[in-house]
Amino acid sequence: MCKWSFTPLMVLLSGIALAGPAEIEVTPGQLSALGIELADAREVSEAPVAALPAVCRLPGDSTVAIVVPVASTVVRVLARDGEKVALGQPVLQLSSRDFLEVQAERRTADAQVRALAAQVERDRVLVAEGIAPARRLQEGESELRAAQARAASTGALLSSVKPATSAPGEYLLLASAAGALVGVGLMPGDHVDSGTAAFFITSSAMVWLEAQLPERLMEQVAVGYRAEAGNPARVGRVLSVGRSVDPRTRSVLLSAALPAGPGLRPGQSTELTVFAPVSAGTVIVPASAVTRLSGTDVLFRATQRGFVVVPVQAGLRTAEGVAVRGEGLAGARVAASGVSALKAIVQGN
Asked: Cα separation of 193 and 68, whole Å?
């Protein structure tokens, strides 16, 4: 790689003159010798305002959990992570003594409901004929409702399972919806507590990203703004911007929905870039095009004879470039390399 020494650089610069108060005259030969390359200043309607570390989550609006109803031990895993399953398809075989007890409780509760329902019907006839007091019917109806609630409770525990034929106490855990299966890594022999999610099922091709948005950017980001992540970039939208500031991080929770893909799978970490609408005249330029003169961000806009210094307001720097606003930049070309040489001319070095 060629390195400029101080003396040759001064020789080149000495042949470059200021054509006006803010214009630098540069010939095509000097342009090449100084390694100055040009880039387009691309006008945009939105620009990146935040690049945030984010974690991918399952989409909460289209994901259901398959929950183990009682403390159990895994016997067999019947479905794989990522597999498409149908409603009611067995996904796990488990063994549990508690399962036998729940089955017995369900049989007892069903028998109580039948007996109490029959008694209530008899009492209703006796009350209508004036043989039994109305209070007796009211008490019977109350007992029936309590028994029905107990039966419904045990029935809910058993609604997502069916007994296995292999051995007493073994049962099959069933898919509670149709969709793509997301496992939690259970293996045969693992113990799982009651209420543990054994699998998740998602029916969406989207993934949710969660990130901490700095407090100072809260008012610059809104629901519906464009969001990008992944490589190649996938485009989505901001779902929510929290209003409660974490006192430790001075940030709020931001959520965005994007299409799932490589690098955007539940549990993976990535960088989320959020875009916001910008004023007319905002352009994207390479980050290398922006430098500082006298404490001000500037860039060098190309003219027919050379360059003119343009003060700019610079925004967030990303891999795409930096968003800036300045006079006459829309559709212009700017110096993207060799900027230090042009800066030296302006400073009179």
From this structure: 7
Cα 118 to the chain's mean position, in Å?
55
Which burial class, exposed, middle or buried, applies to 305 when counting CB atoms under 10 A from its CB (0-12, 13-18, 19+)?
middle
List, in order, residues 6 or more apart from 307 with CB less than 8 Å away.
23, 24, 26, 300, 301, 335, 342
Q: How far apart are the first and last CA of the chain?
A: 24
Distance CA 225, CA 237 (A): 6
What rounded mean pLDDT belongs to the chain? 85
Comparing 319 with 321, the larger pLDDT belongs to: 321
Q: What is the pLDDT of residues 175-229, one digit of tens each?
A: 988 988 888 888 999 999 988 899 999 988 899 999 999 999 998 899 999 999 9
Phi-psi region of 287 (alpha: psi -120 to 50; beta: other; left: phi over 0): alpha
- Dihedral sign, Cα of residue 181, residue 182, residue 187, residue 190: negative
* Side-chain-side CA neighbours of residue 206 (13 Å): 17
Burial label, 241 (beta-carbon count in 10 A; 0-12, 13-18, 19+): buried
pLDDT of residue 220: 86
How many residues are listed for the chain in this entry? 349
Chain centroid, CA 347 distance in Å: 47
pLDDT at 68: 92
HSE toward the beta carbon, residue 25, CA cutoff 13 A: 8
Task: Provide DSSP, 73-105.
Answer: EEEEE-S-TT-EE-TT-EEEEEE-HHHHHHHHH
Work out the pLDDT band at 246, boundaries 50, 70, 90: very high
The widest CA-to-CA distance across the chain, in whole angstroms, is 122
